[in-house]
Amino acid sequence: MIIKEAILSAQHITKAYPLPDGGKLLALNDVSVEVPRGKLTILKGRSGSGKTTLMNILCGLDQPTEGTVEMDGKEITEMADLDLTRLRRKDIGFVFQSVALIPIMTAAENVEYALRLASWQGDRQARVKECLEMVGLGKRMSHLPNEMSGGEQQRVAIARAIAHGPKLVFADEPTGELDTNTALQVVKIFKELNRTQGVTILMTTHDKGFMEIGDRVYSLENGVLQE
Fold this sequence. Notes:
This protein is of the alpha/beta class.
């Protein structure tokens, strides 16, 4: 089913890896997904199900063996590497399971660094403060990562991901290393960003507890999309 409001549309995605015996390993098999604009879409699956492979293809970090991906009307599977790099810097934000904050930078400096990478024009200090306040860390701006809890670090990572105003945020297992209550806080922040900022978020998880929170939920098993 094609959703007219979809910001991201992937059709018939297959990813195959060659095997030494001449055969092929299918990591993804004819997968089609639609990501509605301004909503939280959840891609569920166990480790090895293919969800990270699909995520990498959807954001242009990897190419499918077959199939197409369109983001906001542009077919990214046909883009040159330089154009893909520009697209990711301007229109995409990333949140990772490992957080990946720069340890010698404060929360504010980590977010500001993302703005510099994106060549963001405007009052950077004001934007950094605004984004950290959005995730409830307005009073923790001067703290280093090792002075914050795991949940606080992940919230800094979210602020960093949205700072340059991306159209779409990819969050790969962002709650994987958090306890249940902290993980729920992170997902609630995603929903609040949907509501107040219109940010579109695609999140992978193996946690079945978040299924009811997602506006749209897909499930992958052995590279095949489940109903």
